[in-house]
Here is the input.
Amino acid sequence: MTASTTPLPLARRRFVLTALAGTTLPTLGARANPRQVADLIRAVTGATPVQTGKVTLDLPVLVENGNAVAMTITIDAPAGSVRALHVFADGNPLPEVLRLRFGPASGAPRLSTRIRLADSQTVTALAELADGTFWQDRVELLVTLAACLE
Amino acid sequence: MVRVLINAPKQVRAGQAFEVKLLINHPMESGQRRDTFGQAIPREIIHSITCTLGGQEVFQADLFPAISANPFLAFWAVATQSGDLTIRFTDDQGTTQTDSVAIAVV
Here is the structure.
């Protein structure tokens, strides 16, 4: 009896695992996910809590073309008081977008650039201030024509 | 050599912040695309940019494939004395290029 009952659950387990692998693994390979972004943020901040505010992430909510999306980040802090800026996109193949360190000749903690967005997703801007605090802003946006496809 | 446009005021006041716009002519191939034969197109991006003004750092940025082709960066700098605004960037082939414009403090 024991010999005939044990193979069945194992086979079922294998079936469930392969079924899961078929559904979730290809999407994991193609796109980043919010957990990866959370891990990246934790790698930057360590144990320090991240607060919302001070950072303004300016992105269109509806993006027609994901190949070049104008992005402006303004940090409400005096020049010289912002150590670093990170941008993450949780729906891109690679979640990191930009990492920037402000130097002593920086005139204002403000940056504009153009980014690629592969899908409708949430973009996070994280700023590290000289006093050791972390501030973030998030924008959830809709992309109608995705980048990286052709 | 790639074409670089640096748009900055020629004359600035000491201690007054001014905006600099930078445009680099570069495909920023993300490494995520495939050609018509289904072969992956290798990644070829500018991954690092450093900007200095009179030897002092304005910013140092690490770029990832999510930066659009022909990367555009607009940022703010401040000068205390006349000097060169220098942009130095490195691509995936290890080529480093330096471009600069003179900024005069009046």
About this structure: Chain B has one domain: 4-30+43-105.
